Amino acid sequence: MKVLITGVNGLIGNEIAKEFFGKASFTVGTGRGAQRCKSLDLYVELDLEETSKIRSVLDQVKPDVIIHSGAISQVDVCEENKEKAFRINVQATKEIVSWCSDRNKRLVFFSSDFVYAGKSLSYDEQDFQSPVNYYGYTKMMAERCIYENLKNFSIIRPVLVYGLKDSAKRENIFSWLRKDLSDNKIVKIVYDQWRKPTYVDDVALATASIVFGKFTGSFNICGPQEYSVFGFAREIATILDTPLANILPVSGKDLNQAGDRPPITGFSCKRAKQYFNYNPRSLRDVFPEILDC
Questions:
Q1: Which CATH architecture has domain 2-163+198-222+265-281?
Q2: Are 26 and 3 in contact (CB under 8 A)?
Q3: Domain-by-domain residue ranges, the chain?
Q4: How many other CB atoms are found less than 10 A from the CB of residue 274?
Q5: Strands 198-199 and 194-195
Q6: In degrees rounded to 5, what are phi and psi of residue 65?
Q7: Can you tell me the distance from the alpha carbon of 187 to that of 164, in angstroms, rounded to the nearest whole number?
Q8: Tens of pLDDT along 130-177?
């Protein structure tokens, strides 16, 4: 089985590549700029904004499965650059969907908890989608394209994914806090948004279970514990043995961000547990593993 992973230079894409490398017969990654992920048989540079190039890359590689994790996921960037966000998050997905449909190939698409309005910590896969920001809207529209045009697909929705950034260019909440708190910097973290943070290795393991198990449909996955984002930051600081006083609570309304954030998002994960015994780990469970990386 030849697997192609988009966005392989990002946190999720990189971890998925490490999980599939050596297990799939051939692992291909695409991303913007130079290759940063090492766990690949082949890397092909591809900017998803250049949608006209997507088909030629897929025709060149001829994957059996496409794991589409590439996207603009920064909420404020999407809000301030809606045309660009739509090209990358929706139109690029449509190109991939069309290619898969024409050749009867498998697509695994990474969506987001932000497709929901943010009123529950136990959303399931059938709950009504009503995003509060443009990023969530683009993910919802991409999902609709998949549902309308493919049968052989899976959609994975994680929540606040964290881990060491490794070769990924962008920081995530764990890597960012580890760096700034270790430098004794003061950080402001929202106290009025609640999540169930997901360890990136658990995301990669779930992806492999879905692909090798040939499970189709949508899967909501998240971590086992609910936190305010401020509470999660304090948990990280406690484990890192850095001063809790350096983390200041702030309301999301006071940050003047371009895009709204859903106040509460988390999943029940019942479907994932039923299909492949999804068993996510807590921050304290995975911390020794993170520090060994």
A1: 3-Layer(aba) Sandwich (3.40)
A2: yes
A3: 2-163+198-222+265-281
A4: 9
A5: unpaired
A6: -135, 135
A7: 19
A8: 999 999 999 999 999 999 999 999 999 999 999 986 655 678 999 999
